[in-house]
Amino acid sequence: MILFSTKGVCLKMTSNLFIQVLVQLVMLSVLCVKPSTTTEIASSSAADDDDYTCPVCSCRYDGTFIVCSMDQLNTSYPFANIYAPEATSLFITQRDADEDRSLYLRDGLLGRAFPNLHSLEFSTCSIGLIEDAAFEKMPYLQELTFYKNGLQNIPTSLNSFANSLQKLEISYQRRMTSVDFNGMNDFYNLTSLDLSSNSILEIGSYSFSGLSKLQTLTLQNNNIGTINDGVFDPIENLQSLDLNLNKLHAIPSTINSLIHLVELDLSYNNISDVRNFDFIAFMPNLTSLKLQGNAITTIDNVSSDVLYNSSNLVDIRLCGNPFRCNKALCDFMFYSNIYLSFSPYDLLDSIWGPSVKCTYSCGYPFRFLGKTFVNVYGDLCIRNLKLPTEVPVVIQKNRKSVRVISTVLGVLSSGGVVFGFLVFFAFRRLRHRHRGFIFAGHGFVNFNNRRAPDIRFDALVYNHVRESNFVDDRLRPRLEDPPNDFRLCLPLIRDFRLGAKKLNNLRESMIASRCAIFVISEAFVQDARCKQALEVACEFLHRDDLGPAHLKQTGLILVILDPVLLDELPETLRVLVDRLVTLEWENINEERCWRRLERALEQFREPDKI
Asked: Which of 217, 310, 328, 542 shows its CA 20 to 30 Å from the CA of 105?
């Protein structure tokens, strides 16, 4: 305790000396007297007034949150004489960036000083040493951040709170070239890992071992050029993966194991091959795909169809790539002009200013350089043939020959038109007489003899994706397994031709099937594509020029799972009443529904009984 006798000093000191002593007393009182706006951290001996100390009274402290600067701490043994159980957040920084001081994290000091910490951050302060037990006795720590600390690897001392840590950020460590959790305890509760803005070159096969609950992984702004196989197998529950601003040359095949992924960011790399977007098939929940700013030059028709048929994928960004504008890119140009240009997600986030529009333009050839898809689509993909405006000079020299040639061509053209009409009416009459031939796109198919090899299936099954469990787990085993042994065509999941569009697969499947089963539900009638498929099937059965509407052995079965309004179904169903079987599914009396469905399929299998 500091004692001062003003009477003795006033008698023995001059006035100037008295003023200096008063100034020193005021400075001491400011340092150790508790201010009105902050709260001091009580030391372990605060109960004894004679031994009271104020170790970090210059740190900002509001009761639960502490902010300390390096110049306020004993960096060799920080917080050695402090006990603050009420503190839940600690932020340590270095005010002067030019100050060359390092922080040494000794065994157990932080845990003894702050046993109830939930959040700990080291920001822009150099860490010279982290001992193995530096984070012991901190059982409640959930968030840990290392930002610009000069670390070279992930500290093994993190094992102390592996079971409690939920969010870990180790960023802007320019000397960190690798990442490896192998050999450490399993971080059962870690859901977010941020390793951005380091110097990581490669992701090893066991880099993320033990992170089974990880949902968000950020690896942006590194130098990653290689990702080994199997690296994402331990974190198959990952939902967000950020790999932008790296040096990848291809989309890593190991991402196929991320079946729960929702957001994938591969922008601003050196990727040139999109692999026909085959990885999308392994990610049914993927809603966001970012590939802008890469080296992609072409996207073929198969890749465009994959993007078009991915109904859950709503945020697609492929702008900023040097596309080679030619006829092979026409399908993607059409897709980008119709869907991507009007997408609400076509704004690119910018850290230097406001968001900019995601614009698709040409990088090759030179005559299209910098032009947008909208400007070049008409020139490349829509041909405007120019008719001649004058007779060539060679033909003008012999007008008689020109007239003869014109007459002959006119007669031949007229005869060809007449012959075409005769052939048309002849085959139409044959079709009405024999009722066995239709035009199927590649020639005439005899439906009277379709059983082998034209008819390969007893029934085509079409459903909405929400009814996949009903079709896969109940309908398919019931009908395909003995004793029924029906051959079902499932064009959405199994029996389809790769690269073809869904409607083309539907038409081909109907030609090869005796009947079509449509599983009608509330989700089915609300989905535009499902209703379009049902309308195509009805038109296919009704119109002679599209399909075998006149054949009794081809029919339509509607399995109605949910109550729906008749107005929501195509009007063509009224015309197909003689080939239409409607079955309202009853879960209470399900066996009776199965028997009715089996009898209907048996009738179509034996058309003579219809």
From this structure: 217
Predicted TM-score (pTM) of the model is 0.54
Please tell me the CATH code under which domain 177-294 is placed.
3.80.10.10
d(CA 533, CA 490): 14
Q: Are strands 459-462 and 362-364 parallel, antiparallel or unpaired?
A: unpaired
pLDDT confidence of residue 604? 77
Structure tokens at 354: 């406001």
Interval 133-144: pLDDT, tens: 888 888 888 899
In this structure, are residues 603 and 610 in contact, taking their beta carbons and an 8 Å threshold? yes
Q: Which long-range contacts (CB under 8 A, 24 or more apart) does 600-604 make?
A: 600/515, 600/557, 601/458, 601/459, 601/479, 601/484, 601/486, 601/515, 601/557, 604/458, 604/459, 604/514, 604/515, 604/553, 604/554, 604/555
Pick the CATH number of 445-609 from 3.90.1640.10, 3.30.70.1050, 3.40.50.150, 3.40.50.10140: 3.40.50.10140
DSSP 147-192: ESS---S--GGGGGGTTT--EEEEE--TT------TTSPP-TT--E
DSSP string, 335-347: HIIIIITT-TT-E
| Exposed / middle / buried, residue 359 (Cβ in 10 Å: 0-12, 13-18, 19+) | middle
Residue 92: both structure tokens together: 């340590």
Q: In whole angstroms, what is the distance from residue 175 CA to residue 156 CA?
A: 17
Lookup result for tokens 């993927």: 286
The first and second tokens of residue 82, run together, are 């402090």
Higher pLDDT, 272 or 441: 272
